Amino acid sequence: MAKVNYVQCAACQKEYYLDRMLYDALVSGLKQKLKCPFCKSEFYLEIHGEQHPSTSSA
Amino acid sequence: MGKDMHMYMEHLERDMPGHVVRVKKEVALEFEIPAILQQIESRKRQPVIIFEKVRNLKGDLSQLPAIINLFGSRERLADALDTTVQRLPLEYVDREKPVPPVTVDKKKARVKEVIQKGEEVDLYELPIITHNEMDIGPYITAGSVRVKDPETKWVNCAILRIYVEGPKRLVVNFNPARHTHYIFQKYKNLGTPMPAVIVAGHHPAFYMGAQTKLLVDEPEIIGGIMGEPLELTPSETWGDDVLVPAHADLVIEAEISTTEVDIEAPFGEYTQYYGGQRLNPVTEVTAVTRREDAWYLGIMPGHADHLLLDAPMIEAYLYSRIKAVVPSIIGVHMPVSGTARLHAYVQIKKVNEAEPKTVIATALSSDYRLKHVIVVDDDVDIYDDEQVLWAVATRSQWDKDLVVLSGMMGTRLDPSGDGISTAKGGIDATKPADPREFAKRLSIPSEVMERIKLEDFLEP
């Protein structure tokens, strides 16, 4: 089953998910603002290794 | 004057009035239009819906009505090619031949009746819809994107999802497996942006022709499918070097950056799941031209409107590929129940026991999205899911009639795959070639079926 990389919006706390390629790029150090589809706010996702609490597998 | 969307809609309203619904009450751009379609679909109807009163992205009353579900019915797609539902893929095969386009003067091009360039461009004047709850924002969904190969000069067309990020700024998604991406890489190597013409609103035959898989100058195939040369006219941004369809409702001219990317998605896709947020090329709009009386055409993601448009082309392609190997093929149907991409029902008049698995192997290797194939006999209606499943129930034994192929290319949008590869499979649901080796299907004498008229027996 494909891994779904959920993230939580820093502003509204709602969750949505990233494409695998974008998530892998963020883990590798890409500095990229994400955009919440619910409240439209932009935020940086801090990722440290594979242990970030905002992501989960499905 | 060539075929266009308005001509087709006049025909529908006159000759097939049950296929058109006009909504006169005002609707909002966020979610209301898809909600109305979904409720109509729950009543087993698939009309074209014209929303006469809709706000644009600025909140003003849009000058353009919105029109959706143009492609939501196989009967309409067949009608657009002057054929029947059963014959539609074969008609596509017959028409999928080059007919060179013709260039017409801008004065004769209806798409030039209103021209906006540079600072005048404002996509927020259009009624661009936000479709599903987790979509990042409004998307152009009926945009047939034309790009020109800088080496061959052939034009490739593809319907791509286009996020409207600002009044002049788009973010365009295209799959690395597609021809558009291949051409994009050439512009990237040249260090220049890729010119793109986004066509929103044309005759259904235009859209079906633009879906061709053939590696040719696609405007020629569009002409073949339309049954007449496609009329083109010079663009505002690039002149004679890049031509646009002369009788489209709306054309957006843009430059796709080969260096700058930005956030795009989530967006609800044909699999009826959301594709995850990703980075895609930024696209700056240089000009917008349209008819005075233009309609804004949208395709509803995940609905039959979205699923069926590709189907005739894929069915035609599969039919030709399989026919070359298994001549006994009768028909191919990509059902909406399988998103019209992931499942195929193939009907054959079986001659030998090796044919079904040969059909399966050929079909599964022909389209990266196709995942499951069911092969049935000529007495099974491949347009009826119930009949196909009945054939699987009564004519297959899975210790010998199943084919499973692991590690094949699949679509990223199938959430059950790993994003790159997928496991594909097929079921041989055919009887033995010798009818004396199998049970006989129930039947009522044809003389009785023809004689019985229900109105003679049932109260009105």
Report on this structure.
- The complex is a heterodimer of chains A (58) and B (460).
- The radius of gyration of chain A is 11 Å and the shape is globular.
- Helix content of chain A is 14%, strand content 24%.
- Chain A is built from 1 helix and 4 strands, in the order ββαββ.
- Chain A has 58 residues and is α+β, with helices and mostly antiparallel strands.
- Chain A has a domain of 40 residues.
- Chain A has a two-stranded antiparallel sheet with strand order 1-2. In chain A, strands 3-4 form a two-stranded antiparallel sheet.
- Chain B is of the alpha+beta class and 460 residues long.
- Chain B folds into 2 domains: 300 residues, Roll (Pnp Oxidase, Chain A), CATH 2.30.110; 114 residues, UbiD C-terminal domain-like, CATH 3.40.1670.10.
- Chain B is 24% helix and 27% strand.
- Chain B contains 11 helices and 23 strands.
- In chain B, strands 5, 6, 7, 8, 9, 10, 11, 14 and 17 form a 9-stranded antiparallel sheet that branches.
- Classes of the chains: A alpha+beta (58), B alpha+beta (460).
- Chains A and B meet through strand 2, helix 1 and strand 3 of A and strand 16 of B.
